[in-house]
Specification:
- The protein has about 180 residues and is mostly beta strands.
- It has one domain (about 10-40, about 65-179): Pnp Oxidase, Chain A (Roll), CATH 2.30.110.
- About 10% of the residues lie in helices and about 45% in strands.
- It is built from one helix and twelve strands.
- It has one helix spanning about 80-95; strands at about 10-15, 25-30, 30-35, 40-45, 60-65, 65-75, 100-105, 115, 120, 135-145, 155-170, 175-179.
- The strands form three sheets. Strands 1, 2, 3, 6, 7, 10, 11 and 12 form an eight-stranded antiparallel beta sheet that branches. Strands 4-5 form a two-stranded antiparallel ribbon.
- Strand 11 (about 155-170) and strand 12 form a beta hairpin.
Length: about 180
């Protein structure tokens, strides 16, 4: 049996830019990598007592959503990089609340759309199906840190903290999986 593998070349991260009216879809260009996209980790609750024998007794608690971290090849002249920095600063000041994100897989190029003020994964017209696989979520840009590395190019580390679960969509389907 052969395991199917997908290339990550063409993966694109989009955020809903709520700092402008009307809201806009913002692609984050020159993404070099992205980790912890969805999922999470459940907290461990220790319910051991003096009557517990041999091992501690644990129970799963609420899930803690992940923080997606990545790196950009930084280009200060790119509007996408300027806007990510501006959104980070606006959220730090409390001027912008949580934002929506769509991380589009490499199986398509269509960006998400805005319907009713929310990001929606790209869809085909008829019959309606997802035109691109990816992950939808809500959260905030938790860090944006430009860096200079010796004998290298300008880069920036950034992180997006999910707030709650995320939704997976699979190209060619019209069902979604929320976790």
């Amino acid at each position: 049996m052969t395991t199917a593998a997908k290339s990550t070349v063409g993966t694109t991260m989009y955020v809903l830019d709520a700092s402008v009216s009307p809201h806009a879809v913002l692609a984050i260009p020159a993404l070099k990598g992205l980790s912890n996209v969805g999922g999470g980790k459940r907290k461990k609750i220790d319910k051991s007592t003096f009557d517990s024998v041999g091992y501690n007794e644990n129970q799963g608690g609420r899930a803690d959503p992940p923080e997606a971290t990545g790196e950009l090849v930084l280009n200060k002249s790119l509007v996408g990089h300027q806007k990510v920095k501006a959104l980070f600063e606006a959220q730090a000041r409390g001027a912008v609340d949580n934002i929506e994100v769509f991380i589009g897989d490499a199986d398509g190029t269509a960006p998400p759309t805005i319907v009713g003020g929310h990001l929606v994964a790209p869809q085909t017209a008829s019959p309606k199906k997802w035109a691109r696989s990816g992950t939808l979520g809500v959260g905030y840009i938790s860090s944006f840190s430009p860096k200079k590395v010796d004998d290298d190019i300008d880069r920036a580390d950034f992180a997006f903290q999910f707030s709650g679960g995320a939704t997976w969509v699979n190209k060619g389907d019209l069902i979604s999986i929320t976790y």
